[in-house]
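Customer escalation, tier 2.

The customer says the design service returned an amino acid string that "doesn't look like it belongs to this structure." They asked us to rerun it and document both sides in this ticket. The original structure tokens are below, unchanged.
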């Protein structure tokens, strides 16, 4: 391959930088991937942008030649993924002058038949290319000129944030084809303007003139005819001739000039086609020194030749077709790997603009694809899996607590109470067990009190700075600084409640089957028994685990979905975009005026904090959270309290 590079008036355009880079294989392994040709233009450049284009080209080149087992297309895709990562890092460091000012083309060209053992493919050269911006890539064939840079524009789909290079286009080149890469101004100068008057006869030119060019001298002569137009523009012109002996390459080793004939072998039919004469003497006699005639000796030699030929054919068939089958499997695997890498790159763009939910969806999808591969010692696969998991934990705000703060441990020999639930009201902690009538109250580290409710509490809820305990008999026992008050609530035979919350003077109880939410208005307690009212305008179907109130009611379903209700009507349903995916969320908490929802998942030993749209804010997890029973959040939302067996841990919210 021959590459001719031309720069026209590079200093004429202020604040613009033009550079081109041609990388040829340096050894026999790199030749499998062929050559790289890169052209770049950066407009509105600052002095600090010096080296931007060469740095980007180096990232692409280093990755392209890093793995010789990949196809040229797979290598280019991975190189562009690395380029996107490089640009994303620059953007994160607020080096964004290249955004909207970058025109950049990358072409990978390789001979399609490099191995002397490969079957003839009929395609002399393979072309893979990609670009961003307004560069022009033209394919010149006899009789036609194709603007193949338009293929990239046509294939552009939804542009993900900072995923600059979107598509790789694959094609073929014949030895007589030519490729032109040019910046837009140079391309415009090469195309004759409509109505342009000729100054002399030889001034009548078109792009077709380049089709027959093979040498730099011929290209120079064609460009000389456009000198008036080219003198007025700045930019790059690269002319590529696939064929040619004088390749500007550091690698000059030529492969042996011989061909392997095409073999048409149908393995099941090989043995029946070979007729081996059956000897008229015992088989062992073949290997003994023969005392028979020379004809018998000749027969033995002939027999050996046939057997040798058979094994030779089988061995060649195995080498050729076994290798092709292996390469095909590797290619399929590599193609999948590239799809996964693309998802990873798209996710990184979303992470930069803080759209973590979309990033997590993409990363989880990519991780699921990785898990479909059979277990192996493939280092690339293992590295990819680790990279995806690391990004997922980061995107999901995971904080691993090696030594969480232990507030206190409940270990009272004087009481038989084993706490199973916890309520926090103000600075006071209330611990109870639905199977016991006793309640332990901790007011500070030293001040504690134990009370007997006379009946076992099924539920407890904070009502301002007081706590109310509810039993199935319809009795609500409220404890506050002013003392103790017992309130009677209307009950029905089928009432069994899963959770209860308060909102100003209203008490809301979630039915055990989750079909209805019952409301009690405490302003009506003077009448004796507070009447029950159905709050939902339409019964629910899915079983519920817990609920929280901030003016709307948020219901946590048994399938880990969250439903938002307002004035008795369903407004929306959503799931948390979090990693690891929830298995069994058990409780939900929020407050009026809060921007967050808090979730407890004992099975995963974690607390999850999300926005009210499901976007993850933070997760806290610890190996010490091995017996999570309940949790609470301080009113100022600066701390989370966890009941873990008989221990109470405190997490400062970052």
């Amino acid at each position: 391959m021959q590459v001719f590079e031309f720069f026209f008036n590079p200093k004429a355009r202020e604040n613009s930088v033009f550079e081109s880079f041609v990388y040829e294989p340096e050894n026999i392994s790199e030749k499998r991937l062929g050559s790289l040709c890169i052209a770049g233009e950066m407009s509105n450049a600052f002095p600090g942008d010096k080296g931007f284009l060469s740095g980007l080209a180096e990232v692409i080149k280093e990755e392209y030649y890093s793995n010789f087992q990949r196809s040229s297309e797979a290598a280019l895709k991975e190189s562009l993924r690395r380029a996107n990562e490089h640009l994303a890092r620059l953007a994160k460091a607020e080096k964004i002058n290249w955004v909207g000012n970058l025109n950049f083309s990358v072409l990978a060209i390789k001979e399609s038949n490099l191995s002397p053992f490969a079957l003839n493919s009929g395609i002399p050269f393979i072309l893979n290319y990609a670009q961003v911006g307004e560069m022009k890539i033209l394919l010149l064939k006899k009789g036609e000129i194709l603007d193949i840079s338009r293929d990239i524009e046509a294939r552009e789909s939804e542009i993900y944030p900072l995923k600059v290079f979107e598509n790789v286009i694959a094609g073929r080149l014949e030895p007589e084809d030519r490729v032109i890469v040019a910046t837009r101004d140079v391309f415009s100068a090469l195309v004759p303007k409509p109505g342009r008057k000729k100054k002399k006869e030889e001034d009548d030119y078109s792009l077709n003139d380049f089709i027959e060019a093979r040498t730099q001298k011929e290209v120079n002569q064609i460009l000389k005819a456009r000198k008036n137009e080219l003198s007025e523009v700045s930019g790059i012109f690269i002319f590529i001739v696939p064929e040619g002996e004088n390749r500007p390459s550091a690698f000059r080793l030529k492969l042996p000039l011989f061909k392997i004939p095409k073999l048409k072998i149908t393995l099941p039919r090989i043995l029946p086609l070979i007729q081996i004469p059956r000897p008229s003497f015992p088989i062992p006699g073949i290997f003994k020194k023969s005392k028979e005639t020379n004809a018998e000796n000749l027969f033995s030699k002939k027999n050996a030749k046939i057997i040798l030929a058979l094994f030779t054919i089988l061995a060649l068939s195995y080498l050729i077709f076994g290798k092709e089958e292996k390469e095909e499997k590797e290619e399929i695997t590599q193609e999948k790997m590239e799809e996964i890498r693309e998802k990873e790159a798209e996710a990184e763009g979303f992470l930069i603009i803080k759209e973590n939910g979309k990033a997590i969806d993409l990363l989880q999808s990519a991780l699921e694809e990785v898990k479909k591969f059979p277990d192996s010692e493939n280092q690339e696969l293992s590295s990819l899996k680790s990279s995806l998991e690391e990004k997922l934990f980061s995107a999901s705000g995971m904080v691993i607590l090696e030594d969480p703060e232990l507030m206190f441990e409940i270990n009272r020999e004087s009481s038989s109470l084993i706490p199973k639930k916890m309520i926090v009201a103000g600075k006071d902690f209330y611990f109870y067990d639905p199977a016991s009538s006793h309640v332990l109250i901790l007011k500070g580290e030293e001040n504690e009190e134990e009370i007997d409710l006379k009946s076992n509490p099924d539920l407890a809820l904070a009502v301002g700075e007081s706590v109310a305990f509810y039993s199935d008999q319809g009795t609500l026992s409220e404890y506050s600084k002013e003392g103790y008050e017992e309130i009677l609530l209307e009950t029905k035979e089928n009432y069994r409640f899963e959770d209860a919350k308060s909102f100003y003077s209203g008490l809301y109880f979630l039915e055990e089957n989750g079909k209805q939410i019952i409301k009690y208005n405490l302003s009506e307690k003077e009448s004796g028994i507070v009447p029950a009212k159905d709050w939902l305008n339409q019964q629910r179907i899915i079983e519920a685990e817990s609920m929280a109130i901030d003016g709307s009611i948020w219901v946590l379903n048994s399938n880990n979905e969250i439903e938002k209700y307002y004035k008795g009507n369903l407004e929306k349903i959503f799931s948390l975009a979090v990693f690891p995916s929830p298995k069994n969320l058990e409780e939900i908490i929020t407050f009026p005026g809060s921007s967050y929802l808090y979730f407890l998942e004992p099975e995963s030993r974690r607390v999850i904090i999300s926005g009210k749209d499901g976007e993850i804010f933070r997760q806290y997890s610890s190996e010490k959270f091995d017996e999570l029973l309940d949790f609470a959040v301080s009113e100022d939302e600066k701390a989370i309290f966890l009941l873990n067996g008989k221990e109470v841990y405190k997490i400062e919210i970052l």
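Tier 2 assessment: The sequence is consistent with the input. The chain has a mean pLDDT of 80. The first strand starts at residue 2 and ends at 8. Sent an explanation to the customer and offered a walkthrough call.
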